[in-house]
Specification:
It contains 9 helices and 11 strands. The chain is an alpha/beta fold.
Length: 301
Amino acid sequence: MPSYVNDGSADSPKLLAYINLANLDDLRPDSLWPGLTGAARDKRLDADGFQGVQCVDSSPAPGGTSLRHCGSDRVNLPAEADPVIARHAALGHDCVTLHVGWGLEDDAEIDFLVDAILRASQRHSLPVFIETHRATITQDLWRTVQLTKRFPDVRFNGDFSHFYTGQELAYGDMPTKLAFMAPIFERVAFMHGRIGSSGCMQVSIGDGQGRPPAAHGVVNFLDDFKSLWTHAMLGFLRNAGRGDCLVFCPELLSGAYYYARRFPNGTGGFIEESDRYREALVYNDIARACFAEAKKRHASD
């Protein structure tokens, strides 16, 4: 089974910056994003430093630029794994990230699902990354770590907002939880960029410098996510080989899905608290800084 996205080069393991195309939906009227589509969209994303996109639903893959592309999907039953993964392989995607199951499965049902996914990944030579996500088989730390023991070859799309908020990681002994998460970090091959607080899945981080204004409580969630991301990047570096790439992909979703928070705009309507496109650019800067820190730690291992 292919473990990582690989660019075919002899380069040392590297970070690639993608963006989930849903990040561009329903942005504020004053967003930095100019509302482009098609080739103009791809040209602007390329100019803004993105190296690829994650396609969602029927969104078309990029064309006419150097942008790479990957997919996202859901597998609920073992029989769905092969046709889903075959479809994304046929689209020429670098990889696909999956929501798997609904979180109601017992261990035997989980094992049937994961085995089918790994076999399909191998059959179609497509890297497949199971997303750490609410309402799926990876909805909590315990079940996810146990999964790594039964399937050491599994690889994850680390969306740590689901753990951070859903399991309130900041409540209790954070260093102990980070240590417990080591088997997850060692298998992260893709990352959805989303930062949440203990009570909200997606919150503004401002300019990404210092403590965010939204971190008005006792916990600085931005620092916690920098730690989570750096741990995952270090896990990648310890296991990756020549040409392997870790995809970092902001996925800041709109208020339609109750991710982006909306507040009264003073004229009887509501407005999102931040420009999600601008924040995606900030996220990429933070991710690059975390990757540089992970490389320093890896060099001293």
